[in-house]
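Here's what a typical entry looks like (Serine/threonine-protein kinase Kist):
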Amino acid sequence: MAHCGSSEPSAKVQAPRPGSMKPSQGSVDQSMKPVLFEIFGELWTVQSRLGQGVSASVYRVSSGRATTTAAVKEFQADTQGGDYGYRKERSVLEDIQGHKNIVTLYGVFTNHSGTGVATRCLLLELLDVSVSDLLVRGNSDTQGDGLQQGHSMWLVQHCARDVLEALSFLYREGYVHADLKPRNILWSADDECFKLIDFGLSFKAGNQDVKYIQTDGYRAPEAELQNSLAQAGVELEGDSGCTAAVDMWSLGIILLEMFSGVKLKETVRSQKWKENSAAVVDHLFASNSVMCPAIPVYHLRDLIKSMLLNDPKQRCTADAALLSPFFSIPFAPHIEDLVLLPTPVLRLLNLIDDSHLHNEEEYEDILEDMKEECQKYGSVVSLLIPKDHPGKGQVFVEYANSGDSKEAQRLLTGRTFDGKFVVATFYPLSAYKREKLWNVPGTVLVPPWSRFQAI
C-alpha cells in the first residue's frame, strides 16, 4: 500500500482530473501481482508495467472509478538514503511544467511496500505510443522488395516541430534534456502532439552535474568524448560541460531514422560516418523508397544536416530550426499515420453507399443507426457523415475521450460489412472541428449498417 508523501506538490503541479489523463498501450504483466497505491487519499490499481530501467519502473495505474488513468514512475530505493534520481527528476519537472510538449507531473508520493522499504514515486500524465514504437512498426511494414519504408512527411514534420518547440522552451528555462531518443518522445492522444519525457539526466546549462549523458546511437560527439574522459577519471574544468547542442544532434538522428526507416546505431559508429556524415545523409535520402516531392525532401535533408554538424557551436539551435522552410509546407497525414496515432475522433470507411446519402429518410436512419452502434463503445459527442466531397460517405465519430475511440477502433477493426472489411482509423480532432475532411482515394462504399458482423 502507498500513501502520499509529506511534501506537497509545487504550485505548478496539477492534481489529476477525472478523464483528463491519457490511456496508453501495454498489456498487463501476468507475473506481477495486483498492487494498490493510495495516492492523494484514493486507491489506484496497477494495470501494467510500461517500462523498467536501472533506477526506476513505470506503471500504468487507474483510479477506483476506472475513469482516470495515469502513469507512476517508481524509483528504486536508494540504499544510502539519497534518492538522487527521484529528487533530480522531480526538481526538473516541477521547474518546467506548463508547456504542451512536456509531460505533465500531477504530483509526488511515497510508496511503503509490504517489505517495509519506502520508495519515491512521481504521478505523471499517461501518454500513448512512443516514436520508438512508430519506428518498429514502420520497419515491420517495409515493402516486399526489401526496401526500408520511412514515415510520411506529415509525421516527420509533426514530430520535429513538437520536439523543437519543447527544446526551445527547455533552453529558455536554462535546461538541457541530455537523453533525447525515440523512447523518450511519446504521442498524446487527447492533445494530438508529441511530448518529451524522462528528465533524469537533464541539467542546467553551464552547470552539468551528470557525468554520463545521452544514449548510445543518439550521443553527440562531444558527449561521447566527455563520457570517455569521465570514465577515465578525468575531471571536467569550469564550464567545459556539454550544451544544448547535444539535444539537437540527437533529434537529427531521430528524424533521419523516421524518414529513412533505418536504425542508425551502427551507421553512426562507422568510419564512413566519421569521415563524411553529410555524404551518408545524402545517400540515405537518395535511397529512401518513399516517393516525396523534391523540394520538401531537400528542406528536410538540409535541416537534419544542420543538426548533425560535428562542431556543437555550428549546429543550429531549436529556434533557428523552427524557421526552416520545411515547416512552411502543409502536409496531410497518410492513412497509416491515422491508424498509428490515436485521437478522440474515429473515421470509418467502406460503409455507406452513395445512393443512401441523397435519400433524406434513409440518411437519417443511417445516422441514428451509426450513433446507436458507436455508443456501444463509449460516449459519443458528435457524428458526421458528409453527403458531398470532401469526406463523402465517410463516418466521423467524435468520442468524449481517446480511450473510448481506441476501444471502438480495436473492436471495429476486422469486422465485415456486407462482405467488405471495415477500415477504422483515427482522425485529428482539430481538423474535424474545422470540418477539414480528406478524401480517401480508392475507397469502396457499400450498403447500410444492418449487415455489420464479426468474423
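The longest strand covers residues 42-52.

More examples are in the samples folder.
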